[in-house]
Amino acid sequence: MLNVGRSMFNILGMTDLLKVSDLRIAFHSRGETNEVVHGIDFTVQAGGQTVAILGESGSGKSVSCMALTQLLPTAPSCTVSGGILFKGQDVLQMNADAIRQVRGRGIAYIFQEASSSLNPVFTVGYQIAEAVKLHRPDLEDVKGRVVELLELVGIRDAAKRYKAYPHEMSGGMQQRVMIAMALACEPDLLVADEPTTALDVTIQAQIMQLLRELRAKLGMSIILITHNFGIVKGFADEVIVMYRGDIVEQGAVDAVLSDPQHPYTKALIACIPKLGQKQHRLTTIEKEMA
Fold first, then answer.
1. Alpha helices per DSSP H over the chain
2. Plastid as a keyword (predicted)?
3. Structure pTM?
């Protein structure tokens, strides 16, 4: 793995919120074992650091982050080994009650494609309220909290939208609802898995700006899972480049973008279309890379 530069958070010596060590994930089927993540290491600092995990589909980005809260299938179909320390506690050794406290309140997720993640038969207010009730059973005014969350993510007429069904909202609005749901318990770490998938560029920019504002306001750290270098610059502090289950390059975003070291990182950057550049054919990535 190549390390390029150092993020400002590492220079300042911030506290580790999440520390992943030698993480290995394997799936087992019909007597065969397929290891999809091969011993990766990374950390996320507390207090607002953003780490982007970048790579093409199938590189191991999402499955690695699902392991952070034991969201993967259990043995014998799947095995996860290594160390995942969240606030100093080993997630992989937690029982069901302990890990339930980490999910939502400690680590929350925004999953891909809000239209598929939201239940079409329940109102968005009901679905957010379920998340609030699960982790805040002491809260009396649940509806008030949901309306507050909808307002926080920039949804107008929040009290009215509380009663809306997912199909009555645009893709961008649905994504804002998913963000509100993730923020219901004020997590320390937000995992945003391709939060701008299937959105047009204008709405993409709005969602990324919203995440910036929420990060600054709430002080939460973020893991951004993406295949798009375009949304990493100006948003993340550090970038991790994954290729076929390995971390091949890691470092401060500006350093990686300006001086990539690994052939795969160079190829990914070369694939980005450049405004005003006349080119008949986009750059492609070879099937196998060193």
1. 8-12, 61-66, 96-102, 114-117, 124-135, 142-152, 158-161, 171-182, 201-218, 253-258, 263-270
2. no
3. 0.91
